[in-house]
Design goal:
Layout (H helix, E strand, L loop, with lengths): L2 H123 L3 H10 L7 E13 L2 E11 L8 E8 L8 E4 L8 E5 L6 E7 L4 E6 L1 H5 L2
Antiparallel strand pairs: 1-2, 2-5, 3-4, 3-6, 6-7
């Protein structure tokens, strides 16, 4: 082998090694870039997923807080309703007690009126006008007047209820007519709650009229005198008109 042949033999392996290295380098570069390009979307997807989970968790926590507040309000309202039910039951019992007391007082008043009528009849039988006047003047004002009532159906109808005209007035003896200044009527009925009527017309017995579909069973009547005295009694209008 000559010198030129040895040079060629040495150069060929060197060239082959460079060629392989170059080809290896060409193959590695694009693969790394591809992996980097694939890695970026993967990182972005993880970030979006984590961010979405954070938003979802915050929304869930806020919903739980809102539900807890709503539950607290519901419990408070439930306690309030329970208190109202207890109070309603207590008030119902009180109303029933007062109704019984009113019935007892009405019975006692009626018994006293009948007793007074018998005494008056006995005194009248004696034929002594002076004694009659003395006894009459000694009686309280309420014992010397009589409450009256009337009812008349009207042609008009309120929804499915017929309307009526109710009237109240006093029958007053001549000797006490000038004592009364005016009369006040208070209706103790849910449909006329806190409603009061007032009359100062002596000529018609302090008459008042109201229109309604229901009779008022309890009417508080107050007689105001010129001497600033007030006499009160309870009047059952329904009983008076035969309702």
């Amino acid at each position: 082998m000559t010198i030129d042949d040895r040079s060629i033999a040495v150069a060929v392996p060197s060239f082959q090694r460079k060629q392989k290295a170059h080809e290896a380098g060409k193959g590695t570069g694009p693969s790394v870039d591809k992996e980097q390009r694939v890695g970026k979307p993967a990182h972005q997807s993880v970030f979006v997923m984590v961010f979405g989970l954070l938003i979802l968790g915050g929304s869930f926590a806020y919903s739980i807080h809102g539900l807890n507040r709503l539950h607290t309000r519901i419990e408070a309202n439930r306690s309030f309703v329970d208190s109202l039910l207890v109070l309603s039951g207590f008030l119902k019992d009180e109303v029933e007690v007062k109704d019984r007391e009113i019935q007892v007082l009405r019975s006692e008043k009626e018994a006293l009126r009948k007793s007074l009528s018998r005494v008056s009849a006995a005194i009248s039988g004696e034929g002594n006008p002076a004694l009659e006047r003395a006894v009459a003047n000694s009686l309280p004002l309420l014992a010397r007047v009589n409450l009256r009532g009337s009812v008349n159906p009207l042609a008009s109808i309120d929804g499915d209820k017929r309307l009526y005209s109710f009237a109240l007035w006093l029958e007053i003896p001549q000797e006490v007519r000038q004592e009364i200044q005016f009369v006040e009527y208070e209706f103790n009925h849910p449909a006329y709650r806190h409603e009061r009527r007032r009359s100062s017309n002596l000529s018609d017995g302090f008459r008042i009229v109201y229109i309604g579909s229901e009779c008022v069973r309890s009417v508080t009547v107050r007689l105001h005198t010129h001497g600033n005295e007030i006499s009160s009694l309870d009047f059952d209008l329904c009983r008076a008109v035969g309702w």
